[in-house]
């Protein structure tokens, strides 16, 4: 695979100097246009030691405007990072739309090194690479431009390069025993590299292999590829204006859907006040004890609450938080995104709220908004909400892999019950603020929401992260059911 | 001081049950109104172990709507926190306007414990308390409502309380050897508490001492105080609408100012191209070596660039970044704040960008915007920009205390030189985007800006964090001067 990058390509100093001014002007120009474009650019650098990854990044920073570039290199994770799924630290450093992110020692670094050291099997490595491909697909689907450079040197060229670095007092510090150790493992790194490129070179995020021996050649090659990739993307979008035009028109939802999982719920389930009060104390006490154990064991919990308006999410959440130590627990209400959140992938705002180890985070509405309100209200295109099912499953897989307890509730009420609650709220002094014109508007789309909920449950209720469907017409019954399920989830994990 | 909190105040179960419904409704109502108000509420809990701090916070969370409350308890700092000034972790957890933050083990915790253990002298403790008072003043001046509860128990009551907790299997875990050790040190904690309350009870952030023995009494006392504090603030603001009305009208700047520090600069200083190129290489090399040492020594650097439009900030910054490893270096361009930033104190957005240990952060414009553009353009009131000098000095003190190298540049050019550069930019294909109508508008206020700069330098050029005034008419001269100063700053710190 790397033969083409071992032919000894060079660029003369003269040719280099000739091409440089126009190249820099083009890069600056592209960057300038990018500032008002609605996509971020991720540039990933990988490859063998000494192939010029760091130098190239520094050079690009010097050639371009460093104010709109974030350069990130990921070493050992900090303790805050270790407490979340591995991708958390990459998500938190993603560039916003209109900006560039240069990634050295990126998401490829640890898997490749682990594989070269044979800490993981070929199959495990393949799994990790597929997860990376999914990560990049998720970002690319959202419009991110992903450009990846694999900087290559053959074993002999690498040896010469390391020797050269060692002989110069200014660069000697860069060559440590580790570099020589890796050099001896060259075959293994090449092997891991091949597997990486094969598995993760996709149409949306292709690798460009760059021969790293000659500094002029590699710098100009990388810079030109980057310039071309940005310009191509900018001109693709140019005719339709600056904003990413939605290509597929949202379709009307089929309101005559057949029976749904929701229609199978026994909505008559109820619980009397007395047994409710008894059970409430019992399960709150149990949840408290379980959460204390979870906290000591550094097990985090995420509870997701979804349901139609007036389904009783708030009341149920308060019965949970009342059982927990407020120090360990955070409720995240999901309303309209902030402008920082809008400048990123829609999942970014949820990644940023993932709890530290041993804590409980309660999402009052969640990432499922993408396939519920955004679908029904046509805020997301058909493509967008359709691919969200897979994106969400992948996101939740990572939570589960990290050992996080994930419980998802859909609290269901009937259309009649909602009407009753709306009227009750309107008639109450204390609760009238809870009901707005929006609520009535949403209610008019009941059938569309029902279908969206049905699809959501069908596609995202996995064995690992099942939905708990809660019959919510009776609040007492619903609250106990919810507490019970939270206890079960924690108990299984501990 | 605590005598009044040792009289054995109680509230009967009956009286408690009577008052509770109205109290809860009032708290929820206040919270609801607060959601659209333009200030955050900080509630601080401190006091001796066993006095009910945690229980009270949990109760308030149960009584109010936990979605708009963030409860934070600060234990040992994470490694990311340790790499910043101590207040960083408090700043990052401050509630946005319209929200409540409950703080357990807050900024008072470590200083009080350190003092009780005699790890710090009385004088040092006093210094820490004064810094806390400044912190609270900074937030209160910005509109934050700060409510502080000191939960007290006398030594005997504390003993009984710890024994009671120990005798119940459900609460036994909360009493460890540490609690008993602290109990024995009761006198010292009381002593540290008195000093704390005396030094940090200000009009804007007063302490309320609460007798913690009786659960009903302390819960209702805290809840009522909180309700009253929020209502009082809400009604103070009510007549002037939801938004915080600026009370003092910004005054016109005296454009006939006498001579300024800037008028003393020798603006004819210049450097020829040849020596520039030689010196550039020399100082860039030196800076690179120094930063590598700083990185190994975990010394962080912050460079602040201010200057009129077209002063050459961008070019100077690129000469610095070109010398550094892009991995270690981040340029933060300061433009209009995001909506998340607007929902916090103006310093919050700078706190959040403080670098991890061993890195360089370059601010292209900075917190000084408060006393420059915000003053001249009347975006800040006279009160706001006037108190900003002290706030900024305090902020920078903390950077210096943490061992961060702070270098602040004011790049100055003459009015004629600016005109020449504006025209040059307008005439250039590559640079024309750099000049906008805003630039011409700002230019018309030259004298006002000059006076603001003069005041800024006078008040914020401290021995610890002096301004470097750079004569910028000649770019070669300015860039070398800037590089030189950065090297000097690092060299002194290492």
Provide a compact summary of the structure.
With 494 residues, the first copy, chain A, is an alpha/beta fold. The first copy, chain A, contains 20 helices and ten strands.
In what order do the strands lie side by side in the largest sheet of chain A?
Answer: 2-3-1-4-5
The percent range for strand residues of chain A is 5-15%
Which residue ranges of chain A are poorly predicted, with pLDDT under 50 across at least 5 consecutive positions? 239-248
Q: Please name the fourth-level CATH homologous superfamily of the largest domain in chain A.
A: P-loop containing nucleotide triphosphate hydrolases
Rg calculated over all Cα atoms of chain A: 27 Å
CATH classification, class level of the largest domain in chain A: Alpha Beta
Overall outline of chain A: elongated
The quaternary organization reads as homodimer
Number of helices of chain A: 20
Chains forming the largest contact: A-B, 48 and 49 residues
Instruction: Give me the strand/helix succession of chain A.
Output: HEHEHHEHHEHHHEHHEHEHHEHHEHHHEH
Question: Per CATH, which architecture of the largest domain in chain A?
Answer: 3-Layer(aba) Sandwich
The level of helicity of chain A is: 40-55%
Mean pLDDT of chain A, to the nearest integer, reads: 90
Structural class of chain A: alpha/beta
- What count of domains describes the coordinates of chain A? 2
């Amino acid at each position: 695979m790397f033969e083409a990058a071992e032919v000894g390509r060079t660029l003369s100093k003269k040719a280099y100097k000739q091409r440089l001014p126009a190249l820099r002007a083009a890069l600056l120009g592209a960057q300038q246009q990018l500032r008002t474009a609605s996509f971020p650019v991720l540039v990933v650098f990988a490859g063998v030691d000494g192939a010029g990854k760091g130098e190239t990044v520094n050079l690009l920073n010097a050639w371009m405007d460093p104010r709109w570039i974030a350069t990130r290199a990921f070493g050992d994770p900090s303790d805050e990072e270790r407490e979340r799924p591995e991708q958390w630290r990459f998500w938190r450093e993603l560039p916003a739309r209109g900006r560039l992110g240069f990634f050295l020692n990126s998401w490829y670094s640890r898997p490749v090194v682990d594989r070269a050291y044979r800490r993981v099997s070929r199959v495990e490595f393949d799994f990790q690479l597929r997860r990376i491909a999914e990560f990049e697909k998720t970002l690319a689907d959202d419009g991110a431009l992903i450009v990846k450079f694999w900087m290559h040197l053959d074993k002999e060229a690498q040896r010469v390069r390391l020797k050269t670095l060692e002989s110069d007092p200014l660069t000697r510090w860069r060559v440590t025993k580790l570099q020589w150790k890796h050099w001896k493992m060259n075959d293994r790194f090449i092997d891991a590299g091949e597997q990486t490129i094969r598995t993760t070179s996709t149409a949306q995020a292709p690798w460009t292999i760059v021969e790293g021996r000659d500094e002029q050649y590699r710098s100009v090659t990388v810079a030109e590829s980057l310039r071309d990739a940005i310009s191509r993307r900018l001109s693709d979008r140019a005719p339709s204006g600056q904003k990413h035009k939605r290509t597929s028109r949202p379709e009307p939802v089929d309101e005559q859907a057949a029976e749904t999982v929701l229609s199978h719920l026994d909505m008559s389930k109820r619980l009397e006040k007395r047994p409710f009060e008894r059970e409430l104390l019992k399960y709150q006490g149990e949840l408290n004890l379980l959460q204390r154990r979870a906290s000591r064991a550094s097990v985090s919990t995420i509870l997701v609450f979804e349901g139609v308006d007036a389904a009783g999410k708030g009341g149920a959440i308060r019965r949970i938080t009342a059982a927990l130590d407020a120090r360990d627990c955070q409720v995240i209400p999901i309303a309209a995104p902030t402008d920082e959140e809008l400048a990123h992938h829609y999942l970014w705002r949820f990644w940023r709220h993932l709890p530290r180890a041993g804590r409980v985070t309660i999402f009052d509405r969640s990432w499922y908004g993408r396939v519920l309100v955004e679908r029904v209200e046509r805020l997301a295109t058909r493509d967008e909400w359709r691919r969200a099912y897979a994106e969400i499953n992948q996101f939740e897989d990572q939570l589960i892999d990290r050992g996080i307890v994930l419980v998802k509730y859909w609290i269901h009420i009937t259309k009649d019950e909602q009407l009753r609650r709306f009227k009750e709220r309107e008639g109450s002094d204390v609760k009238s603020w809870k009901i707005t014109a929006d609520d009535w508007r949403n209610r008019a789309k009941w059938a569309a929401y029902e279908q969206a909920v049905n699809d959501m449950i069908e596609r995202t209720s996995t064995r690992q992260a099942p939905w708990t469907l809660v019959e919510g017409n009776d609040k007492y019954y619903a609250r106990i059911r919810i507490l019970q399920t939270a206890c079960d989830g924690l108990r299984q994990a501990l």
